[in-house]
Amino acid sequence: MKQQVRLRRRKIQGPLSGLRVIVTGKGGVGKTTFTALLAGELKQRGLSVLAIDADPQEDLAYSLGFSPAEIVPVTMNRAYLEEKVGSGGIINLNPDLSDIVTRCGTRRADGIGLLVMGTVDSAGGGCLCPENTIIRSIARQVRVKDGEAILMDTPAGLEHFGRGLGRGFSHLIAVSEPTAQALRTACRTAELAGELGIQNRLLVINKIRNEEEFQRSREILGDTDLFAEVFRLPYDERLTRQKELTALTAGEESPLTEAIGGIATLLIKKERE
Fold this sequence. Notes:
Elements lengths: L18 E7 L5 H14 L3 E6 L6 H5 L13 H7 L15 H5 L1 E2 L4 E5 L12 H13 L6 E6 L5 H4 L8 E6 L3 H16 L4 E9 L2 H11 L7 E6 L11 H5 L4 H18 L1
Parallel strand pairs: 1-5, 1-6, 2-4, 2-5, 6-7, 7-8
Antiparallel strand pairs: 3-4
Helix pairs in contact: 1-10
């Protein structure tokens, strides 16, 4: 599966300053689980984390341990949407979102903040165009200072990259299972990320049960320059039982948390270079 980054489109502005990580992958590969674990690990290392749930499934909040009462999705804040994006068919494509975290987000005392995009709440409710306009602008407008990080969990698949969702991010982490289909999706995602100017691209192969499975995945990937690093996450039965996944990174070290820690170390190191 030899892949090369093809920058076919017009030149696009590169990433902004600060640690801004977008997490992508095929449906069911575990990207939401990974995002929650990475948020917990970065928090353990003293960073203040803003987790953005851009997946309409809205599972990230629960994986982070937020209660439903704490969550105010952007899609439910109609006054904010109309103020920033407009209404009546006229959409402002460059809204000022400097206050979105304080008005639509929530933050716990432990340093993890959450901003939930939301979903269509009824059949025939239409697309998420105003909300997508806001989500696309977040990475460009939310300031990230030293000691802070943004993690965005995205919808499954590739469509959101066609809408430019990844613009402004410093890192892409493509999460995959050890299957040919999931790895193909990860490679295509990395290619699109390169076209958006994201040069720091990592691959995380999740749910690895043994060395043979990991090596088979590497063979499927072949000789590719799409990813700076390829990480493996071992299958961990605790993930099926643990409600708040950040608790795993705060507890006893395991092969899973050790692997997540290695990824966090690399991200912080790259950002400080």
